[in-house]
Specification:
Helices cover about 20% and strands about 45% of the residues. The chain is of the alpha+beta class. The strands form two sheets. The protein has a five-stranded antiparallel β-sheet, with helices on one face. A two-stranded antiparallel ribbon has the order 5-6. Strand 2 and strand 3 (about 30-40) form a beta hairpin. The longest helix is centred in the C-terminal third of the chain and has 22 residues, at about 70-90.
Length: about 100
């Protein structure tokens, strides 16, 4: 699977210090996963998959890669594009489309 498009949306809430942006990732120009989160964690930036809160309070991923290699590719690509946009623009626009 090839990532063919990434769309980023900045988080502007002062309450969301660690959450930097949301990302929508398109694969092979034919399948999109909405709602990935770019988070600045204790060990650096990472990408959290979209999730839903279950009745017991636990969060479960709605969509996620099966292999560690695909997870790493998604994380590396999304964070690289986020950093590229941040460096280029100084601030992340409301909705920035980034072609791969």
């Amino acid at each position: 699977m090839k990532i063919t498009d990434i769309r980023l949306r900045a988080v502007k809430s002062e309450n969301e210090v660690k959450l930097k942006a949301y990302a929508d990732v398109t694969f092979n120009s034919s399948f999109v996963v909405h709602g990935l989160k770019i988070i600045d964690g204790q060990k650096g930036m990472f990408v959290a998959m979209p999730s839903r809160k279950m009745p017991d309070g636990e969060y479960k991923d709605i969509a996620h890669p099966i292999t560690p290699e695909l997870r790493k590719e998604i994380t590396d690509t999304v964070i690289a594009k986020y950093n590229e946009v941040m460096e280029k623009e100084g601030v992340l626009p409301e909705a920035e489309a980034v072609e791969e």
